[in-house]
Amino acid sequence: MITLDDDQKKAIYSSREKSLLVLAPPGAGKTLVMAKRIEFLIRTKAIRSPYKILGLTFSNSAADEMKKRVIKEVSGSKGRVHITNFHSFAYSVLKAYGNRAIIKRNFSVLGELDSEGLIIDKLGISGSFSLSKYDERRKAAQKMLDRYKIWKIERILKLNGDYCDKKFDKHFEAALNAFKDELRNINALDFDHILYYSYILLKNNENILNYYRSVFQYILVDEFQDTNPIQFKLLELLANGIDSSLPNRPVFILADPNQGIYEFQGANPKNIEDLLNTFNIEKIELKGDHRFGSDGIKKLIDEISNFIEEKTLSLSPSQSDKPVYCIFDNKKDEAHYIHEKIKEFKDDVKLHEIAILSPQGYNLDIIKKRLNKEEYIFLPDFKGIEIEKKYKSLFNELKKTAGIKGCLEEIIIDITKKIGIEIDNDLLQILINIARKYDNKVSMMLQDKILLFSNEVLLEINWGDILRKEIKNKIFLSTIHSAKGLEFQKVIVCGIESGSLPFFVSCNKCNEHGLDENSWMESLKLLNVGVSRAKLELLISSSNSRRRFKTHPSCVLKPFYRHLEILNTTLL
């Protein structure tokens, strides 16, 4: 029933033995290609039972959706595919064999919020964080924490043991060791060490590695541009092994280098280049458009992608249907205009087909005040840290109930009533749905249910995926990071001004020394992700002031003005 273009067919129906790198720009149908590739391998019996296909996606919710799709379309595929994300795969390895890495297998996942609090304590700066954010001691403590995060990414996620912070190296080393000791004491692992210890475990135990390699005979990876070096090394181990008698496993990699937006989290754009050297891989580029109903949006996205790749402008602009770009005196006027546009949009589409996105969450604050609270869902962060903050008391109370008997769903409802959380809250209902899954496992002890439930919630990388699927008739307010992988009929991308895109640190560098190419490219890729969420209509907006600060339209957007219908041009 689905019409595939020639490039999609070439990727889907290639020989099972081939390793492929499929470059897929927005709207090229890469999710369909991944699902159809799995279907092809199963239907042609290229992967025979009891062997399996391993799929690694950006988020668990995307993995679940992919599994449902394949199981529905391909009879007999249940149990033949294992689709998850890198963190969840690493978690499952440690749950099975963690004792070989001096880790108890019943460890809990330490969320981002608790992890940061613990390292702040080990750095000896917790007292400073109780001060006003304008206090100089608080500012100094924040700078130290930011430097530590960069140092830890280099040491742990990039496996760069030689990386050194000239000022704090010994202090950071001692703090990290104390942090690891505390993790062992509380029997927990943070996100980074889940990846790190699983890599060390497989690297140092070839028999365990070969077990996984014998089970998974074909490996697919989605959103490869957002992988970090340790994830690349995990893939290399699973595919090529270590001096193994087992043959190399073919890999099927989907990526869009022009939408790599997680370098601040350790993602390495060079991973795509390194694929060509590490694997005997063939490159295929998808060029078709299976998303956009607007020629103007498609032209803008193609031009941004071309500029990222070639540093040149080459496409002629659309003669009509250009996305609108509005420039306002202040945030109040910007929010008023957006509110009026939302009223127009509501006549054309359902609320859940509307998204208001921004590079930084604070740009959405004044817009939230203008909207009816019942009309929108707000997700400011691409990870579950906001879930942790919102329901910290719920998870704390859950841990205290581990010794009693009962139904996990009922216990969660009782706790929420006790601590005053509304039962009809959208996010809470999703958490309750997850809890029901564990209640169906009647033989499982409540303590185990609580542990696995909490770990699953924290291991979900992208809550935007879940909310988009579960919550209907609400406008999606989000950072661009949270909206990655999602699409909407109508999108407003606001806050496209200096200090927001690029972020203020980069803009300060621009004022003093000129914006470095890396900061420019990071901002350009983020803009690319934001505008490519729109299928039919796109509005972009900037403000010339924010609170007490003067701003100006983002320099990142200026090369593409000819692809936009610009309003308030006198302000340029």
CATH superfamily of the largest domain: P-loop containing nucleotide triphosphate hydrolases
User: What's the number of domains?
Assistant: 4
- Low-pLDDT runs of 5+ residues are none
What distance lies between the first and last C-alpha atoms, to the nearest angstrom? 49 Å
Largest sheet: 7 strands, parallel
- Tally of strands: 17
Q: What is the topology?
A:
Layout: H1 6-12, E1 19-23, H2 30-43, E2 52-57, H3 60-73, E3 81-85, H4 86-97, E4 108-109, H5 112-122, H6 136-157, H7 169-186, E5 188-189, H8 191-204, H9 206-215, E6 216-221, H10 229-240, E7 251-255, H11 270-278, E8 281-285, H12 295-310, E9 324-328, H13 331-348, E10 354-358, H14 365-370, E11 376-379, H15 385-390, H16 392-400, H17 408-419, H18 426-439, H19 446-459, H20 463-470, E12 475-479, E13 488-493, H21 504-513, H22 517-531, E14 534-543, E15 545-546, E16 549-550, E17 565-567
Parallel strand pairs: 1-7, 1-8, 2-3, 2-6, 4-5, 6-7, 9-14, 9-17, 10-12, 10-13, 11-12, 13-14
Antiparallel strand pairs: 15-16
Protein name: DNA 3'-5' helicase
EC number: 5.6.2.4
Catalytic activity: Couples ATP hydrolysis with the unwinding of duplex DNA by translocating in the 3'-5' direction; ATP + H2O = ADP + phosphate + H(+)
